[in-house]
Recover the amino acids of this structure.
């Protein structure tokens, strides 16, 4: 492992808030030296998702084995038998390249990372305009069943309640404004 210890940028929000769009935008800004932390999941790929690019898709039994052997920085059973987590090796992989890590992660995982690396982490909560807008955005994706969308929407108020525990909150009412705000936050934190 290299001696480089970079910064960690956590972006969390309810599904449909726009965090993935914000994270992709930040990754396109080469001046920040960011690399995406690829999460592991026990769920099946959706749409055009690619193993090793969007997620590390691993079986439920393998995921549970990695939990037992403490290979995760954080992990969560987001829905029944549907696990997500950050492998410790992923952070090392990115820091070995001399880059900073950016996460697109659920609120529980984001807060765990902040607790483990309080000085190195900027935790940002992306707040949607309202629940109705979340429903519209999730339906527009066309990736999930009405049941899955209902599960995500039901979980949103609980996730929204965690917003004050984050370092910063971006209100994603206007995407251009949210993207600029995210850039400013990253730029400022890199100076610390």
């Amino acid at each position: 492992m290299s001696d480089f210890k970079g910064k960690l940028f956590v972006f969390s929000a309810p599904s449909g808030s726009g965090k993935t769009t914000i994270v992709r935008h930040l990754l396109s800004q080469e001046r920040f030296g960011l690399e995406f932390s690829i999460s592991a999941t026990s769920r099946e790929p959706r749409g055009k998702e690619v193993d090793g690019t969007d997620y590390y898709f691993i079986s439920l039994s393998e995921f549970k084995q990695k939990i037992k052997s403490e290979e995760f920085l954080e992990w969560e059973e987001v829905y029944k038998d549907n696990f997500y987590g950050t492998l410790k090796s992923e952070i090392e992989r990115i820091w070995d390249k001399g880059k900073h890590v950016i996460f697109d992660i659920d609120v529980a995982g984001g807060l765990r990372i902040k607790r483990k690396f309080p000085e190195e982490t900027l935790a940002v909560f992306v707040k949607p305009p309202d629940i109705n807008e979340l429903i519209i955005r999730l339906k527009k994706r066309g990736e999930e069943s009405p049941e899955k969308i209902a599960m995500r929407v039901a979980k949103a108020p609980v996730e929204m309640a965690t917003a004050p525990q984050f370092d910063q909150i971006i209100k994603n009412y206007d995407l251009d404004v949210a993207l600029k705000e995210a850039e400013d936050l990253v730029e400022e934190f890199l100076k610390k």
